[in-house]
Design a protein that fits this description.
By secondary structure, the protein is an alpha+beta fold. It has 19 helices and 9 strands. The relative contact order is 0.10.
Length: about 550
């Protein structure tokens, strides 16, 4: 679990977060002391209740029999304690049963949870997105029946998009919704890769399902969104069937289900044929949380590796009088640890700032501020999701290397983090899709105006200026080469991530000259930031071909 002093330093000293959220009417009374108390209690809960279930979730996992899923021992009890203590509702509106706290506090909570027990955290991971989707697009009748239950976490929710023939290409979805005279819809079809599609954690599960109405146009413009509960309002079971759970590389504690809807009763959410508009509200909320998963997982891997490096002795370090030395005295190990620390700390600044901007976009009385915050969230969310989950896997693998052969066996727990972290690069939109979303759908769509304005707000640097130049060149060249942005999208996103991290480290360095922060700052400049030149070089080379 993340160290609370580090989190407090970034929130209070680097970002001045309390002053930012207190400038917004809903959070005027939420001071730094209250926020710290909330996070301290969150840390206690995560450490004492959730973290101890990490290994049993992986080794025992979920069990499937006769359409029912049983989670690992202790999972149900932990989840019941979680929602009854009010943790899912931190940032939900008070009128919906929530606590009305800033979104960044919820983000920190889920970062802690992911680092402590990624598999368990998958269960509540979609709650906020489902809440936001229903709050913005649901009818009053649906809100009355389901919103508070989702806000409080009493009922868990799923996002049912993917089908066997349609992975990320949602335009191929075949599931049907047939309107009924009473205003309901009968849903028929199958969905795969549904996290928490069936489980024993809560009495009801609320499925949000993409499907097609009878006269819908083809492709993504013909998709509608439907709320399909496991248990109907009269207490009877709906025609929602879990056919099996997937055997996965990692996340054994989370049931990934194949779901079938056989004339399942549901209700439309939002307008007909505009289901993606409603679903994107849920997906965007989920993507920020996945970026925070990356931070939390990398923090967990680093903590394990750092602790091991302070105990294990091997060979004589170059500056030691005699050996064997602690391995954290060897430059190769120090480089690994400092490099991952640079990603964690910088990524945390960017993720927390993005969560703060979500609240600014929603609650600021200043229209200019709202627009700038919306621009930041739209552009930076895919960057965070892709860059931090890429680094969670690569960095966890690097941390495993610190253990040598011991890292490859189950005893030390680092190999589980490597396995569990890999899927975050795939779900909630693959990282390749995030890159295309950034460059094609956002940067090029407005001729680079939005990203150029965002970059202008960052501290001046050669890397920032080079990225602005590359953006302008891409905007110009793409007019004659429609394939170009798809070739370089990954490189462009990575370059944006590194420039943003450079700005984050500029803020950290301005706030502290303590060795705790100067060491990873040096690592960032030495071993991380140079990648930006490489990525921009790839883009320039492609522009010449």
């Amino acid at each position: 679990m993340a160290a609370l002093p580090d989190i407090a330093f970034i929130l209070n000293d680097v970002l001045q977060a309390p002053a930012q959220w207190q400038a917004l009417p809903p959070f005027a009374d939420t001071d730094a002391d209250l926020a710290l108390q909330v996070l301290e209690e969150a840390g206690k809960f995560v450490t004492s209740v959730v973290a101890p279930l990490q290994r049993v979730g992986d080794e025992v996992g979920c069990r499937f029999a006769a359409g029912r899923v049983t989670t690992a021992p202790g999972f149900k009890e932990a989840y019941q304690a979680f929602w009854q203590a009010g943790w899912p509702s931190l940032s939900c509106a008070v009128e919906d049963g929530g606590q009305g706290l800033p979104a960044v506090l919820e983000g920190v909570l889920f970062e802690m949870l992911a680092g402590a027990n990624h598999g368990w955290t998958m269960a509540p991971g979609l709650l906020h997105g489902a809440y936001a989707c229903l709050k913005h697009h649901g009818s009053q009748a649906l809100k009355d029946a389901y919103l508070e239950k989702i806000a409080t976490g009493e009922w868990l929710a799923t996002m049912c998009l993917t089908e066997a023939h349609a992975g990320s290409d949602l335009g191929l979805v075949r599931t049907k919704g047939t309107p009924q005279a009473d205003g309901s819809v009968l849903v028929n079809g199958s969905k795969i890769f549904i996290s928490g599609g069936e489980h024993d954690l809560t009495d009801n599960i609320v499925h949000l399902v993409l499907a097609r109405l009878p006269d819908a146009p083809p492709g993504p413009k013909g998709l509608s969104l439907f709320l399909v509960p496991k248990v109907l309002p009269d207490g009877s079971l709906n025609a929602v069937v879990c056919e099996r759970i997937e055997e996965k590389m990692g996340l054994h504690g989370s049931p990934t289900c194949v779901m079938r809807f056989d004339d399942a009763i549901g209700w439309q959410v939002g307008e007909a044929n505009k289901g993606l508009n409603a679903m994107f509200v849920m997906m965007n909320a989920a993507r920020l949380h996945v970026g925070l998963q990356g931070v939390g997982l990398l923090e967990a891997a680093w903590q394990k590796a750092n602790a091991y490096a302070q105990e294990r002795r091997q060979m004589r370090a170059p500056t030691a009088a005699s050996g064997p030395s602690l391995i954290n005295e060897h430059p190769a190990i120090r480089r690994i640890l400092a490099t991952q620390r640079a990603w964690i700390d910088g990524g945390r600044v960017l993720a927390y700032h993005t969560a703060l901007q979500l609240d600014v976009a929603a609650h600021s009385v200043d229209a200019t501020q709202r627009a700038a915050a919306q621009r930041w969230c739209a552009l930076v969310t895919p960057v965070l999701k892709a860059a931090m989950t890429d680094q969670a896997f690569a960095g966890a693998s690097a941390c495993l290397q610190v253990f040598g052969g011991h890292g490859y066996i189950r005893e030390w727990g680092i190999e589980q983090i490597v396995r569990d972290s890999r899927v975050a690069m795939i779900y909630e939109g693959t990282n390749e899709i995030q890159a295309i979303d950034l460059l094609v759908r956002k940067v090029l769509a407005d001729g680079g105006a939005g990203i150029t304005a965002l970059l202008a707000e960052l501290p001046a640097s050669a890397h920032r200026d080079a990225l602005v130049e590359a953006t302008a060149a891409l905007v110009s060249a793409t007019k004659n080469d429609p394939e170009l942005p798809y070739w370089v999208a990954d490189d462009y996103l990575r370059a944006v991530a590194l420039v943003l991290l450079e700005s984050a480290w500029s803020r950290i360095s301005a706030a502290s000259t303590d060795a705790r922060w100067t060491t990873p700052a040096h690592a960032f400049r030495t071993w991380v930031l140079p990648e930006c030149n490489m990525r921009l070089g790839i883009i320039r080379q492609r522009l010449k071909t």
